[in-house]
């Protein structure tokens, strides 16, 4: 542990949970489930929560989602939400760990097994101590990975914020490249929005040996792909973040055929909501103009997916304070570099003020890599962060705290 970390409380009181929570994490890693199919995972989580003495557990939210409530013994107070995601990815695992996936073609390549295990560990600790006022809502979310509508969107649409009187909401994600025992966070936008688009390029097909008798949608599609890059390089402020990537291309099935149409698909990422409007408008205009210039045309679909993940000021200060009280001042980077990767926790922090923090996974391969694995050494830090966050925000007054101690004695 670095000297700077010693300024904080440290994770000593959470180390006794490490062995047990590691077993849970590895079980979840061995048994990954795709989005909205997390039935075994949800069963596992529900059984653990019940074994901790948590009585208010609601299942079946957004299909396989769970919200469980822990009431503190420190008197009346607000309810804060702590969220972990549960789904895996359609990736063939190559980590070669003893606890590798037993479900071929599906793996926990984004650390959601660790997220779920850390929140379960915090739930066990909080359920046993209850040294806080108000209430903690444990949100176990399905389907963070898929395109719209995701599990976070559905849970918000099904009214969990009002239904459980959640006033603030917090999320956490593993981050390779940050040392274990350290955290990264920033005020304002921390992750980008995600929109997706489809362009069908309409031409007139024919034999590949007589291209002059066709309107070749492959050539048009290639020009559109190149043309879209100028929307970023020549039409947006270089100080603003906008990414337009064409990621799918479907054309003819035969070597000697020029098809009637070509299908292009891609994604748009930005940190500025106004650039979403710009991208939708300008992608269509550019594609349409290029296609018509060659005698073709386009069909266009633009899907607004995940909004910008925005960290609200007060909640972010509380998150920073909780993390630093655990690991020390210098082990928390409060101005980490923003990423235009998207995260559907954004729907929750749109519905309620909230904050999203990254926890170090060490010098591992990146997430979504076939060899990725959550670092179990990070588990006590994640558990400790959740507990310190609750104890920071929902600190009981002295009278209630003494009463609670007498009851437990």
Automatic annotation (TrEMBL):
The Peptidase M20 dimerisation domain extends over 197-287
Identify the residues that bind Mn(2+) 2: 110, 112, 145, 368
EC numbers listed for it are 3.-.-.-
Q: Which GO terms describe its molecular function?
A: metal ion binding; N-acetyldiaminopimelate deacetylase activity
Q: Alphabetically list the UniProt keywords.
A: Hydrolase, Manganese, Metal-binding
Note how many cofactor molecules are bound and how. The Mn(2+) ion enhances activity.
The protein's matches in InterPro entries, at most eight in alphabetical order, are given as: Amidohydrolase, Bact_exopeptidase_dim_dom, Peptidase_M20, Peptidase_M20_dimer
The record's listing under Pfam families reads: M20_dimer, Peptidase_M20
Instruction: Name what cofactor the protein needs.
Output: Mn(2+)
* GO BP: diaminopimelate biosynthetic process
Recorded hits in CDD domains, A to Z, give:
M20_Acy1-like
Q: Does the keyword Manganese apply?
A: yes
Residues binding Mn(2+) 1, per UniProt: 173
Per its record, how is this protein called by name?
A: Uncharacterized hydrolase YxeP
Species of origin: Mesorhizobium plurifarium
């Amino acid at each position: 542990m670095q000297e700077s970390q010693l300024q904080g409380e440290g994770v000593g009181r959470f180390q006794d949970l490490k062995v047990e929570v590691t077993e849970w994490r590895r079980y979840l890693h061995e048994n990954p489930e795709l989005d909205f199919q997390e039935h075994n995972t949800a069963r596992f989580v529900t059984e653990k929560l019940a074994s901790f003495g948590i009585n208010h557990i609601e299942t079946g939210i957004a299909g396989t989602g769970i919200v469980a409530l822990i009431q503190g013994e420190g008197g009346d107070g607000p309810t804060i939400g702590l969220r972990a995601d549960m789904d895996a990815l359609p990736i063939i695992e190559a980590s070669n760990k003893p606890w590798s996936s037993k479900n071929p073609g599906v793996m926990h390549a984004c650390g959601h097994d660790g997220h779920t295990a850390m929140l379960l560990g915090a739930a066990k600790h909080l359920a046993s101590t209850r040294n806080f006022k108000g209430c903690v809502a444990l949100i176990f979310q399905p389907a963070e990975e898929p395109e719209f509508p995701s599990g976070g969107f559905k849970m918000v649409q099904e009214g969990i914020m009002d239904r459980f009187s959640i006033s603030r909401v917090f999320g956490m994600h593993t981050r390779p490249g940050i040392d274990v025992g350290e955290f990264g966070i920033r005020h304002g936008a921390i992750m980008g929005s995600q929109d997706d688009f489809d362009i069908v390029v309409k031409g007139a097909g024919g034999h590949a040996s007589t291209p002059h008798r066709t309107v070749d949608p492959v050539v048009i599609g290639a020009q559109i792909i190149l043309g879209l890059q100028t929307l970023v390089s020549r039409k947006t402020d270089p100080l603003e973040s906008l990414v337009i990537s064409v990621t799918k291309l479907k054309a003819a099935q035969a070597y000697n055929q020029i098809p009637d149409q070509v299908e292009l698909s891609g994604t748009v990422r930005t940190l500025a909501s106004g650039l979403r409007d710009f991208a939708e408008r300008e992608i269509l205009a550019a594609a349409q103009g290029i296609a018509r210039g060659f005698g073709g045309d386009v069909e266009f679909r633009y899907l607004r997916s995940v909004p910008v993940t925005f960290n609200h000021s007060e909640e972010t200060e509380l998150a920073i304070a909780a993390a630093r009280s655990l690991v020390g001042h210098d082990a928390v980077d409060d101005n980490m570099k923003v990423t235009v990767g998207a995260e559907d926790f954004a729907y929750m922090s749109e519905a309620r003020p909230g904050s999203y923090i990254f926890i170090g996974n060490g010098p591992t391969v990146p997430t979504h890599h076939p060899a990725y694995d959550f670092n179990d050494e990070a588990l006590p830090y994640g558990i400790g962060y959740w507990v310190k966050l609750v104890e920071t925000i929902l600190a009981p007054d002295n009278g209630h705290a003494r009463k609670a101690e007498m009851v437990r004695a």
